[in-house]
Amino acid sequence: MGLITWSDDTYQIHYAGETIVLLPKEYALFQFLYTWKNRAFSRNDLLDRVWSLEEPTDRTVDDHIYRLRKKLQKWSHLLTIDTVRGVGYRLTLKEQQSPSPSALNSDFSENIKKMLTTYHGMGMGAALQTLYANQQVLGFQMDSFYATYLRFVVGDFGWFVEDKTPPISDKLFYLFHLYHMTEIDSQKTLEILHWALKNAKSMPKNYQDEMQITAISVYAQAKEWERAKKQLLPAREVVERVNSPGFQLFFQAEETLLYLLMGEVDEAEEVIQRSEEILQELPMQRELGSFTIARGLCLYHRQELAKARRLVDEGLEVLRSTKFVPHLIYGAQMILLFLKDFGYDAEWERKYQKMWAELSEEYKFDYLQKKIRAIISSTI
């Protein structure tokens, strides 16, 4: 979320190696103002957004603004919270002067790219976000791939459906995934898959390859078993051609989900075992989280309820810790769809339904789906 990085569990904000600790409502108020920086809000607006379930007074806002200003004083070169006469308050983000790239070592940009690639491959979302947030301070500019990809990673999903600057072909892959991961109705996702595959030739080659693999889980979730198993062949050909551990694990995660939803637990466990051998050599955290969840779902099939719950929760927390928002959403979706299909654990299903509702509200699933369907209608 821009230059500031956030620790939601401890109410801390971070910038350039410095940390400021806030109280919960200070944190919520600052995060809202920062999200909508350079825009003025009345006291009533802020009361509605930050204290929606309480009955505070206008003075509550003024007191919190006063305390925030004191705590943020050392970052006054970065931002200010201004009083807008007759309106309320506005957070103003100041322009940052970055060092000239020409003044930096000639290997600097190449080293940054290597860091991005490493962090991406290892599933280190927090590190990616830190680099993304501090481009101006560090004196570099991410290429268009990572600039777009990082929006996806941090959950800036509205940009993909609202910003009309990039051509639709540049966003097609992301639009498909946004719909796929936010939709519980598998038949609706199947329609979006057909649209995406029809237009896949306009995507970069690596995205076309990923679509061949992702199609497995879409067919599996729609219970089109034969199509899903048939899709294993072209997906496996992609993996062999690309020859990447990341693609191998991605393919095996899709294959595992297929077997889990078909109730073929032995086959699923065999694929998980092969994947864990790769992860011992290359501990990619996103994939570790996904396969931990899958191991837990296998234990549900084995009727080992307590162990299943523990592993499912553990895997989801690993995904949460990576700061890759899409993987967290996909993980929650996988758990919920599995429990809904098999009915092994009504209590944990309710738990994850609640989590799904919270994610849906935070990332506006209904709004994203509506906008994506409108985009599809305009391209047909």
UniProtKB/TrEMBL annotation:
SUPFAM superfamilies: C-terminal effector domain of the bipartite response regulators, TPR-like. Keywords: DNA-binding, Kinase, Transcription, Transcription regulation, Transferase. Residues 1-93 bind DNA. The keyword Transcription regulation applies. GO terms for molecular function: DNA binding; kinase activity. One of its GO terms (biological process) is phosphorelay signal transduction system. It comes from the Bacteria. It holds the Pfam family Trans_reg_C. Residues 1-93 form the OmpR/PhoB-type domain. InterPro entries: OmpR/PhoB-type_DNA-bd, Sig_transdc_resp-reg_C-effctor, TPR-like_helical_dom_sf, WH-like_DNA-bd_sf. This is Histidine kinase. It comes from Brevibacillus formosus.
